[in-house]
Specification:
about 350 residues, alpha+beta, 7-stranded mixed beta sheet
Length: about 350
């Protein structure tokens, strides 16, 4: 037994980690270990020899187990010391600066517009980006032979399925759901798609927000008052608007809406092309045909509709010269819209 103890002590000195120590424990105290094997020799001893022999084996077991526990504690202490040395934190070093993220300028503009119209009692309605030809065109007074479709050439999936060219299909579906019996006051934000050559002011994919109000006794003056409030809220209290005659198949009469230039205050500059005015959206009174197709009596109900591009609004408000900056994820551009440490916004000149 003394030989086994000496062998164990020699092996214990070479142990440098917990795994090796566990292997050594199994080698001597396991079910098939050397100490356990000594107990099997008791069957060859007489009854008188067995008690003394068994006591010596137990003493050997306890001695080995005690040395293993001491070694385990020593290894744990050494590991802790090493960890503390390697993970020392120098509290005198300067802290790391964490960048504060911010919304994308388009998301920010969309939320600003949504908040404004929610304050006027509008609902937010969203719809499908993949639409049917009927809701995208026909329900909006644009039959298959109508030449105005050429201005909204789209990506067709089949003859009757396409990527929507505006968010107007949402309006058509809401009118259909109301079955000509309820008033409507909604805005419809979302992505739209048109086959277009990408350049500084055009993109094949962009965002749009359209508004629709249907009720009894809705007049052009209601539309103008709403858009005046909108222009002052988004572009500044000094802004004025003007309405110019235009054409849209789903409104009659139709108008283009301009705001007074916020840079030159109407005097003329490079932003407004020296006109003093900047075009921001199209609008008009809902065409009677659109009302009738949705089940509304055009002699009793009337309404107005408008549509704008948050991309264009963001470009005007933040002085962005190229629409492609909004979609290319260039950090040099995005970093200009980061929040400051006090929670405010930083917008450097482009």
């Amino acid at each position: 037994m003394s030989q086994i103890l000496e062998e164990f002590k020699a092996s214990l000195e070479t142990v440098e980690d917990s795994r090796s120590l566990q292997d050594l424990k199994v080698q001597y105290l396991g079910k098939k270990g050397k100490v356990t094997g000594l107990m099997k020799e008791m069957k060859n001893l007489s009854k008188e020899e067995r008690p003394e022999y068994g006591q010596k084996v137990n003493e050997l077991r306890e001695s080995i187990d005690s040395m293993i526990n001491e070694k385990s504690e020593a290894l744990e202490a050494a590991a802790l010391e090493e960890r503390l040395a390697n993970e020392t934190l120098d509290v005198t070093l300067p802290g790391r600066k964490f960048n504060i993220g911010s919304q994308h300028p388009i998301s920010r503009i969309i939320e600003d517009i949504e908040d404004f119209f929610l304050g006027l009692g509008y609902e937010i309605q969203e719809g499908y980006e993949v639409e049917t030809d009927y809701y995208n065109f026909e329900a909006l007074n644009l039959p298959k032979s109508h030449p105005a479709r050429d201005m909204q050439d789209s990506f067709y999936i089949s003859e009757e399925i396409l990527l929507r060219t505006h968010t107007s299909p949402v309006q058509a579906r809401v009118l259909e759901e109301r079955e000509g019996k309820e008033a409507v006051k909604i805005i419809c934000p979302g992505k739209v798609y048109r086959r277009d050559s990408d350049d500084a002011t055009h993109s094949h994919q962009f965002t749009q927000i359209e508004g629709l109000v249907i009720d009894k006794n809705i007049h052009m003056s209601d539309l103008k008052g709403t858009l005046e409030l909108f222009a002052k809220e988004i572009f500044g209290s000094e802004r004025e608007i003007r309405l110019r005659p235009s054409f849209f198949p789903f409104t009659e009469p139709s108008v283009e809406v301009d705001i007074s230039c916020f840079k030159c205050k109407g005097k003329g500059c490079n932003v407004c092309k020296n006109s003093g005015w900047i075009e921001i959206l199209g609008a008009g009174m809902v065409h009677p045909n659109v009302l009738e197709m949705a089940g509304y009596d055009s002699r009793e109900y009337s309404g107005f509709a408008f549509g704008m591009g948050p991309d264009r609004v963001a470009m005007l408000k933040y002085g962005i010269e190229d629409i492609r900056h909004l979609y290319t994820n260039d950090l040099r551009f995005i970093n200009q819209f980061k929040q400051t440490e006090d929670g405010g916004e930083r917008n450097e000149s482009l």
